[in-house]
Amino acid sequence: MNLSLSRLAPASLVALLLLTACPAKKDTAETENNAASQPALPQAPAFNPDSAYAYTAKQVAFGPRVPNTKAHVQTGDWIIGQFKAAGLTVKEQPFEAMAFDGKMLKSRNIIAQYMPQAPRRIAIFTHWDTRPFADKDKEKKNAPLDGASDGASGVGIALEIARVLSQQKDAAAPGVGVDFILFDSEDYGYDGSTQGEKKNLLGQQESWCLGSQHWAKNMVPANYKPNYGILLDMVGAKNGRFSREDLSRQQARDVVDKVWNTAAQLGYSDYFLFSDSPGITDDHVFTNQAGVRTIDIIDFLPSGEFQPYHHTTQDNMSIIDKRTLKAVGQTLLTTIYAE
Ligand SMILES: [Zn+2]
């Protein structure tokens, strides 16, 4: 994903610039979150970070998951096999999409449903492809990257949540069904700050998130109406910093508060910062447009900057930290059990 200003109205653009200029400013009332005033946390099963780490490493071991490559096909097949092994109902949504450079990308979205008959549902979105070039790298700008945090970590957490849910006896099942919706071809977009010499055949925003754009126009399941959605993007790096992103706050403030308060009660406020950040182009832009109120949990600083590993060859297994995986995974499982 990429920083986006284009979709913002002029008023919010001004606010954004002000915000970006004063990154240290915090909302004191919200920062001083009083745990005693929060509802008690539900009993939720334990999220196993070793397992999530292994799922992440396995994807990276296939090689970069760039569309039209063997590693991409193999990884997609493996992900589907993992969801099926956990007993989930899996659907594939194959599609071809044109990238900004004119290349046709053979892609597929993967949809895995836990308790598909449950009327009340939550969506967990993430992308499973890898950016084809490390364009923000100082030296290897055209090299592929492992996408350990940017891609593999979100899938790793989704697979571990699916595994844990599938192991619960009926009496210990949550009160909602969960849909894991994994988008393809999210990260093949045009970044004007690094690719200025290339021609972009698509819009600035439309060059990203090709899988969620396709899904938003052709929803699987049809007429999909979950309570809300949570997007995971770059959720595995050491010292992950999840700020409250602008579009998430605009579209689903209650969900942002619920998730961030749950994280605080679990002791993860060093990851889930009670600080706001500007809007970004990510899959939640298109899921929100499709009517699913969606927040983005993303490693993105309140200043509006990404961490240094973003879209570089540093995004490999050496930056993946089990504590970050645990913070995100346990917060999500607890949120699911609170419904
Ligand atoms: Zn990316």
Automatic annotation (TrEMBL):
<keyword id="KW-0808">Transferase</keyword>
<protein>
    <submittedName>
        <fullName>Glutamine cyclotransferase</fullName>
    </submittedName>
</protein>
<feature type="domain" description="Peptidase M28">
    <location>
        <begin position="109"/>
        <end position="335"/>
    </location>
</feature>
<dbReference type="Pfam" id="PF04389">
    <property type="entry name" value="Peptidase_M28"/>
</dbReference>
<feature type="signal peptide">
    <location>
        <begin position="1"/>
        <end position="26"/>
    </location>
</feature>
<dbReference type="InterPro" id="IPR040234">
    <property type="entry name" value="QC/QCL"/>
</dbReference>
<keyword id="KW-0012">Acyltransferase</keyword>
<keyword id="KW-0732">Signal</keyword>
<dbReference type="InterPro" id="IPR007484">
    <property type="entry name" value="Peptidase_M28"/>
</dbReference>
